[in-house]
């Protein structure tokens, strides 16, 4: 179970102690890699270009952010309510595929962060439980002009912490996931530099939580975000969180075309 306040540090690395034995200390990503944003590419001019790559119109990939038989009436009601808001074009319902490689496109990942494994079955942590209703059931809606997101979250029994309640780490992982998607679509951000969460109440398994995320500011190639997790009627506050994400260099136009 989680403590009431959690700090996540993005990267740890070895350093040599006085006697030559390895020790570990936090390493700042910015100290080792400070990207320079490339202007006038297909990704820097408009949020629409990032959204078009995040939400492909023609794909055979399974969208896990669609209603299924495990959704309770409240989850279904809220989904229909927010889906209705997409009709005027202000809100966008984001698809959720099993791997971020199907979503995150157009960013230059520093070589030191690139995976070298040849395995192909990658999964987003929040989509690693295949059976419907047992793990993460969630859907994210994004508002491009206001740079904010809303996530509907129904935790399943495989996310249990305290008996019959959701593990704090499960909520923290989802907050980080929503932050990353919002940061990417709002300003080509991706890597988590810091994540702070303060838990106020525990979420019953199979209930519904409403997570509201906003971009507070973008400066010095960093995106600052905040999140409030609460009950749908806004009477119970589950957690408050904040995070900082790194803006990455954008790919040149002639290197960014993908099907």
Report on the structure:
The strands form two sheets. This protein has an eight-stranded antiparallel beta sheet. 17% of the residues lie in helices and 29% in strands. It has helices at 29-32, 47-54, 73-85, 168-187; strands spanning 5-8, 12-16, 22-26, 92-94, 136-143, 148-155, 189-199, 209-219, 222-230, 237-247. The protein is of the alpha+beta class. The chain has a single domain, classed as Thiol Ester Dehydrase, Chain A (Roll). The radius of gyration is 19 Å and the shape is globular. It is built from four helices and ten strands; from the N terminus they run βββαααβββαββββ. One of its GO terms (cellular component) is mitochondrial matrix. GO terms for molecular function: long-chain fatty acyl-CoA hydrolase activity. Residues 166-235 form the Thioesterase domain. This is Thioesterase domain-containing protein.
Residue ranges: pLDDT <50 for 5 or more in a row? 2-45, 253-259
Number of domains: 1
Strand tally is 10
Helix content: 10-25%
State the end-to-end distance: 42 Å
Superfamily (CATH H level) name:
Hotdog Thioesterase
Spatial strand order of the main sheet:
1-7-10-9-8-6-5-4
The CATH class designation is: Alpha Beta
- CATH-defined fold name: Thiol Ester Dehydrase, Chain A
Rg of Cα set:
19 Å
Shape category: globular
The largest pleated sheet is described as: 8 strands, antiparallel
